[in-house]
Amino acid sequence: MNGRLAGKVAVITGGASGIGKGAVELFVAEGAKVVFGDVQDAKGNTVAEATGAIYRHTDVSDEAHVAALIQTAVDTYGRLDVMFNNAAIAGPAGSIVDLDMDEFDQLMAIDVRSVAIGIKHAAKHMIAQKSGSIISTASIASTGGGYSGQAYAGAKAAVVSMSKAVALELGQHSIRVNCICPGGIATPIIAKGVGLANQVADQTVDALRVILMGAQPIPRSGEPADIAEAALYLASDGSSFVNGHALFVDGGMSAGRFAPGEPGEGLEFMQAYFEDALKNPMA
Predict the structure, then answer these.
(1) 217-240 burial: b if 16+ Cβ within 10 Å, else e
(2) Which residues pair with 134 in a beta bridge?
(3) In this structure, which of 54, 190, 196, 227 has its CB flanked by the most CB atoms within 10 Å?
């Protein structure tokens, strides 16, 4: 099969929905053999049936689960070319003085610890074959406050720093380590980040597209496919000299303060608008 990933084997975490699902679909379309994990079994099995990829139930905070997911790819296809650490949650919202430390620990386990685990176990196989691309999903929130809750910002900053540090170590083995920093992407994680329940958040994507049209200079929301395309580039041989890089895919949101409409309609306005519109999506 022809394609930019023809002959490559990829593992993707959080592949049952959102950005991960988009990556599974695109990677398969571009010729890769894909093994992906998630905890959403019904959605994961549906994606597997539609794409031909292999799905495994995977709690990314559990090292044994991630190691087993990667080993499935190696046992099935004989190698590992791409590791996409994508699984994440939004974590706690609200004031730092009200921070629930159990929720904080869960966020760090899923958004940071899982990345370290994925890199660790992917690297073992990639070092042996002297090649590979490791990609992790960070966020525009990694640049500082104002884009998300405090804990999420800290978690994603850790992903960026870890990616750069590991890139220095693994480059000598011809292994590239990069991350992607999405901006406003129309997925349920944004709604979950303002406190909506999972089942409600899944129904807000269309409302998010409308909200996000005014959040950055390019007048549309980001889509999972935008991030999947970035991951495809970093996974492909077309990025063979790209290492230790945080690729921002945000429609220009990180370029500077953007105030659509009336004066004063900046980031603070958009945050309030997110919360109000998502809680009242039909208003």
Answers:
(1) eeeebbbbebbbebbbbbbbeebe
(2) 83, 177
(3) 227
Residues with a known catalytic role: 152
The C-alpha atoms of residue 204 and residue 186 are separated, in whole angstroms, by 9
Question: pLDDT for 145-168, tens place per residue?
Answer: 877 889 999 999 999 999 999 999
pLDDT for position 58:
98
CA 266/CA 260 separation, integer angstroms: 7
Task: Pick the closest to residue 66 from 106, 107, 15 (CA basis).
Answer: 15
* Cα three-residue angle 198-204-208, rounded to 5 degrees: 130
> For the range 92-100, what are the long-range contacts, defined as Cβ-Cβ under 8 Å and sequence gap of 24 or more?
92/149, 92/151, 93/149, 93/193, 93/194, 93/195, 94/149, 96/150, 99/150, 99/151
222/212 Cα distance (integer angstroms): 8
Q: What is the pLDDT of residues 195-208, one digit of tens each?
A: 555 555 556 667 77
Rounded Cα gap, residues 4 and 220, in angstroms: 27
Tokens 């629930």, residue located: 100
> Residue 123 corresponds to which amino acid?
A
What's the rounded Cα separation, in Å, for the pair 150 and 276?
20
State the sign of the Cα–Cα–Cα–Cα dihedral 169, 171, 172, 173: positive
Beta carbons within 8 Å of 228's beta carbon, 6+ residues apart: 19, 22, 23, 25, 26, 27
Q: Where are the beta strands (DSSP E) in the chain?
A: 9-13, 33-38, 54-57, 82-85, 132-137, 175-182, 246-249
Q: What is the 3-state secondary structure (H, E, C) of 246-261?
A: EEEECCCHHHCCCCCC
CA distance 212 to 214: 5
This prediction has a pTM of 0.87
Which of 108, 132, 106 is closest to 119 using CA atoms? 132
* 173 vs 264, residue with greater confidence: 173
What order do you get walking across the sheet with 175-182 strand by strand? 54-57, 33-38, 9-13, 82-85, 132-137, 175-182, 246-249
